[in-house]
Amino acid sequence: MLRFILTRASLVIPTFLGVTFLSFLLIRLVPGDPIEVRVGERGIPPERLAQLRHEMGLDQPMWKQFADYIGNVLSGDLGTSIVTQNPVLDEFFTLFPATVELGLAAMVFAVLAGLPAGIIAAVKRGSWFDHGVMGLSLTGYSMPIFWWGLLLILFFSVQLGLTPVSGRLDLLYYVEPVTGFMLVDTWLSGEKGAFASALRHLVLPAIVLGTIPLAVIARMTRSAMLEVLGEDYIRTGRAKGLSEGRVIGLHALRNALIPVVTVIGLQVGTLLGGAILTETIFSWPGVGKWLVESINRRDYPALQGGVLLIATTVMTVNLLVDLLYGVLNPRIRHAR
Amino acid sequence: MPLLDIQNLSVEFTTRAGTFRAVDGIDLAVDEGEVVGIVGESGSGKSVTSLAVMGLIPSPGRVVADRLSFAGRDLRALSASQRRKITGKDVAMVFQEPMTSLNPCFTVGFQIMETLKVHEGLSGKALKRRTIELLEQVGIPAPESRLSAFPHQLSGGMNQRVMIAIAIACNPRLLIADEPTTALDVTIQKQIIDLLVQLQKDRGMALILITHDMGVVAETAHRVIVMYAGQKVEERRARDLFERPQHPYTGALLDALPERALGKRRLPTIPGVVPGIGDRPRGCLFNPRCRFARQDCLDLRPPLFPDPEGQARCYYPLGGDMWGAPE
Ligand SMILES: Nc1ncnc2c1ncn2[C@@H]1O[C@H](COP(=O)(O)OP(=O)(O)OP(=O)(O)O)[C@@H](O)[C@H]1O
Ligand SMILES: [Mg+2]
Predict the structure, then answer these.
(1) Band of the pLDDT at A335, cuts 50, 70, 90?
(2) Which of A139, A310, B101, B304 would you label with B28, given CA atoms 20 to 30 Å apart?
(3) Which is nearest to A150 in space by CA: A270, A280, A261, A243?
(4) Is the CB of residue B72 less than 8 Å from the CB of residue B86?
(5) Do the beta carbons of residue A164 and residue A196 sit within 8 Å?
(6) What's residue A334's pLDDT?
């Protein structure tokens, strides 16, 4: 077990370097540097421009800038935002709970809908339900998030007026951020209607963000269940006189969950990627929207730091999923 | 009245190539406390027959029978949940592959206790005590410590013992063992058969023992049914079958026994294979492989002919006109 963790941990370093290098490089490939973007059309005397660049170290050769950045990161310093002058780490962690809340809500939606859909589709293989689930999940998987989000806003928010268009909470309410999770904070605040408002704000973005994971989970559950349902021990379960509910819901599902959990874990990466678009559509004040803004402002430190921290999150979650895989699968648990 | 009484049982599967009768008009009666052997090559329908008795034929498969009763109850008339009260309790089954027949995600203890909980409503200390007792009865050493073992931590032989423990947990009146030793080492095979026979004797339960192994049948069964291509081709008391087989197929199976081939340089085998879905011949199903086939055998499908000791599906039985030729 320890060896397994060490092996995994040793992979973290090259991944970090790669991610840092790519974000460092790509943001610099976008035309215009932070200063040009800030002064915009007005222009600025060339001497002043050169001076500002020098202050920010942007006149240094690229490799030198990269080496300095890596050095700072290794000593725990992600730098300060060029725009706000706040430490990148602080900005990230102020906004991160909003993204986590959205991601968790999306995942809960995806699992609660995808797991049963996949199970029923497998049990009723070849039925209209099965074809329906497979067709819808293919649609869901191939749907552009932007388009899907706007469609839902048009229908539920604009047409039916059921949900708000943007943000996390009505402006009527003010709640003290305690955990950063709006659902929890509004609940704790005890303010009437605040929780319901937070929930209404969350529903639509969560559905939009959860659609792709939902499709993936439904398909994966179905195929894992189909495989498991043909196993000998399922026949044994029936030969013992167990009810169909127990045979499918316990004996089959328990085995099918092993690959499904892995897939759910891998969806965390997809989810954080999707959060960038979803947060932008719904003006959700999380790290996704913040990253897009950082790109627009060429806020190099903010973008690089943000990408690095998100990569860390994804890697941590994947490691946890691998550990969970061992817990779920007795054959692996004992092999190590 | 026999404990298990089956008349004219057929099981059909619909495949892309058409409808396939895996079991074709089988009669099978098993008395309380009786050991019945079913033998036949791979694909002759032994497993499908036993799964039909258990009510475990997978769903597009069709089961029809003139009579399908257990302990006087018509199994066809029962609802699914009524039938589950019998399956696993009064009729239990042990399968061929012990390594895959147990659920890899649950402990051995859990899988035994589950049966006891569902059928006997046991719980707590009584449940645990009974489970340990069962493990002892099937010859598993240090039973207490095995409760928390997972199937992959046990050998094939041990897993088969666990399967047997599950099967006998609720004192079944009929145990079906479908090639319980085929997947095991030769040394373990004998132990498992001995265990089954001993449990059968101790408990007086009926046992259907399905096997390829004529030797095992000779040692254990009271009565033997020989199956070929979904049909019963011969049935008689074990001793009679071994001394006076009537069907050429039975004769060939017996000739293939090592102890009968003493002095011969190599073991006789039966050329060819059991006909499958697309290649069932006209006439007697065994005729392409039969040394004695005549014109009748190629044209006409023989029924089961009764004789004083049993029945055989053959126009020209090995005993000839021992009992006077069938008309
Ligand atoms: N679910 C199914 N669908 C279609 N055909 C089936 C199915 N189950 C069994 N069969 C066919 O029925 C025939 C009899 O199979 P069965 O498993 O009963 O043979 P067997 O006598 O038990 O052989 P073995 O000694 O190999 O276990 C085979 O030709 C098999 O292919
Ligand atoms: Mg079989």
Answers:
(1) low
(2) B101
(3) A280
(4) no
(5) no
(6) 64
A133 membership: H or E segment, kind and range: helix A128-142
Closest residue in A to B172 (Cα–Cα) = A240
- Strand segments (E) across B2-159: 4-15, 18-30, 35-39, 62-64, 67-70, 73-74, 91-94
Q: Are A255 and B105 within 8 A, CB to CB?
A: yes
- Is residue B15 packed enough to be buried (19+ CB in 10 Å), middle (13-18) or exposed (0-12)? exposed
Six token digits for residue A195: 């929780």
Q: How many domains does chain B have?
A: 1
DSSP string, B112-141: HHHHHHHHH---HHHHHHHHHHHHHHTT-S
Q: Structural domain of residue B223, as residue ranges?
A: 4-90+170-312
Q: Within 13 Å, how many C-alpha atoms sit on residue B128's CB side? A: 7
Which residue among B102, B105, B118 places its CB closest to the CB of A236? B102
Across the interface, which of B92, B95, B106 has its CB nearest the CB of A232?
Answer: B95
Tens of pLDDT, residues A37-55: 777 777 778 888 888 888 8
Q: Is residue B54 part of a domain?
A: yes
The residue whose C-alpha atom lies closest to atom 11 belonging to ligand 1 is B22
Residue B157's φ and ψ, nearest 5 degrees, are: -60, -45
Which atom of ligand 1 sits closest to the CA of residue B45?
A: 18
The β-bridge partners of B38 are B210, B225
Beta strands B310-312 and B305-307 are antiparallel
Parallel, antiparallel, or unpaired for β B35-39 and B206-211? parallel
The pair of three-digit structure tokens given for residue A248, joined into one six-digit string: 């499918």
Q: Please indicate, yes or no, if residue B230 is contained in any of the structural domains.
A: yes
Regarding the beta carbon of B50 and ligand 1, being less than 6 Å apart is answered no
Residues of A in Cβ contact (< 8 Å) with B84:
241-243
Q: Does B199 map to a domain?
A: yes
B209 found inside a domain: yes
Q: Which domains does chain A have, with CATH numbers?
A: 95-297 (1.10.3720.10)
Write the residue with the smallest CA distance to atom 2 of ligand 1: B13
Q: Does A255 touch chain B (CB under 8 A)?
A: yes
Three-state secondary structure call for residue B150: coil
ipTM of this predicted complex?
A: 0.91
- Tokens 């995994």 map to which residue? A8
- Interface touch B103/A251, C-beta < 8 Å: yes
Contact assignment for A236 to B163 by CB distance below 8 Å: yes
Q: Find, in chain B, the residue whose alpha carbon is nearest to that of A233.
A: B101
B266 in A contact zone (CB under 8 Å)? no
Q: Quick check: A254 contacting B, CB < 8 Å?
A: yes
Q: Is the C-alpha dihedral spanning B37, B245, B7, B33 positive or negative?
A: negative
Any atom of ligand 1 within 6 Å of the Cβ of B13: yes
pLDDT in tens, A128-167: 999 999 999 999 999 888 899 999 999 999 899 888 888 8
Using a CB-CB cut-off of 8 Å, the residues of chain A touching B166 are: 236, 240
Instruction: Tell me if A238 and B87 make a contact (CB, 8 A cut-off).
Output: yes
Nearest CB to A242; choose among B54, B86, B118:
B118
Query: B74: helix, coil or strand?
Result: strand
User: What sign for the dihedral angle of Cα B162, B173, B28, B53?
Assistant: negative
Dihedral (CA of B190, B193, B199, B204) sign: negative
Q: Domain of B188: which CATH number?
A: 3.40.50.300
